[in-house]
Design goal:
The protein contains 11 helices and 6 strands. It is mainly α. The protein folds into 2 domains: 184 residues, Lysozyme; 52 residues.
Length: 288
Amino acid sequence: MNIMFVSCNGKDNKEPISSRDLKANYLAFLSSVPFPTTLSFCGEKVPLDIPEVRERAEREFYLNLQTPGQLILYIKRAGRYFPIFEQMLKQENVPEDLKYLAVAESALFMARSPKDAVGVWQFMEPTARSMGLRVDEFIDERRHVGKSTKAAIQYLKSGYAASKSWSLAAAGYNMGHGGVKENIDFQKGETFYDLFLNEETSRYVLRIAVIKELMEHAEKYGLSLSEEDVYKPSKVKTVMVDRAITDLADWALNNGTTYKDIKLLNPWILKRTLPAPKGGAYYIDVPN
């Protein structure tokens, strides 16, 4: 198999090279990339002077660099979601870095995990319900970008209110705020980096900090995307619906669009019908 390789110095190599040579070039690049001297999350520095913390951070750094295709998708999808996140984070007066938590959770994909966490913010059903999200056979608001983002922010704010640390709040997003508090009380720790936690949570905050570094300084790590390369937010108008929809395909046609577009723009709608709203209305996005 022959493919074209673009060198890391930005100059095109016009000669096709084999996949074996491409791999060798990439491995040479990967081994030459210096680990960043600083990492931070929400204004809290990662203490890289602690050897075991640095080792954990390096693990996340090099494992993420091993999958450049995934990093490219992070950056592309960020064009669609980050403007929404940034506006809502600003409205709630919380750090913009919290947007990277969604990247670590779902790769900015409307995913369902093996543990049945759903959406870009990966809410489990009990937590989603506790945060006021509707989850039933017709509607799953974990898949509603605006509503799930609002719920995620509120959950993180509750963790910060208890710990006064966004790193601990993020750890609580992963393992539950109660679990974080129990570990702080038992271990007599003060910061995330004082605690001995389960492997997933121990990696989690560092993964977020590394993702932030790689996305904010993508060109430094050999990833060069133009503004035209990233996905854009959909141009929509919102239609208020205060009654049942018995046939979503017909409703779509009557509103100048298609069933496919309605499902893509409103992934929170699970079925081909919607029951009458309970004491309010549905707000359905259609192409503008």
